[in-house]
């Protein structure tokens, strides 16, 4: 290979590498934006309002059948809406799904079998696990910075 061929090949090779890196970074950014689009309604609707409100209604209603059904229905809707994470981040989906199943199991127990405070604290702990899964387990997208309360 002579010097002329080397000097023409080297810039072409560098341009190809730069193009590949640009495409890779654009795809990564697109995936992060797509996850953001899927996560935003989960945060705004479920994690910031519906699930905490359902827990409050459950506690205020003193574990009435209506409050249990309402809370359970909201949990099922939430689980249905996080299906994207089953394929994109299976670990997050499994953690959240297990927490939802535990909450549903607690809700299905008889109200008199445990003390009211202990049941509420168990449900609150499981809800915190769900929050942590979304805030800290999503890889390198800094999603928590988008949802700071102002």
What would you note in describing this structure?
By secondary structure, the protein is mainly α. It has one domain: de novo design (two linked rop proteins), CATH 1.20.1440. 80% of the residues lie in helices and 0% in strands. It contains 5 helices and no strands. The longest helix is centred in the first third of the chain and has 58 residues. The protein is rod-shaped. It starts with a helix and ends in a 14-residue tail after the last helix. The mean pLDDT is 80.
Summarize the structure.
The chain has helices at residues 3-60, 65-81, 84-88, 90-108, 116-136. The chain is built from 5 helices and no strands. α1 (3-60) runs antiparallel to α5 (116-136), α2 (65-81) packs antiparallel against α4 and α4 packs antiparallel against α5 (116-136).
């Amino acid at each position: 290979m002579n010097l002329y061929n080397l000097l023409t090949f080297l810039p072409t090779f560098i341009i190809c590498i730069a193009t590949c890196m640009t495409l890779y970074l654009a795809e990564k950014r697109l995936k992060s934006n797509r996850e953001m689009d899927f996560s935003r309604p989960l945060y705004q609707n479920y994690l910031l309002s519906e699930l905490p409100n359902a827990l409050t209604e459950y506690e205020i209603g003193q574990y009435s059948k209506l409050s249990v059904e309402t809370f359970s229905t909201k949990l099922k809707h939430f689980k249905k809406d996080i299906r994207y994470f089953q394929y994109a981040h299976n670990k997050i989906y499994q953690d959240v799904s297990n927490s939802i199943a535990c909450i549903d199991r607690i809700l299905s127990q008889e109200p008199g079998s445990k003390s009211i405070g202990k049941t509420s604290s168990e449900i609150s702990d499981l809800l915190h696990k769900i929050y942590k899964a979304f805030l800290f387990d999503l890889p390198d997208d800094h999603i928590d910075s988008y949802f700071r309360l102002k």
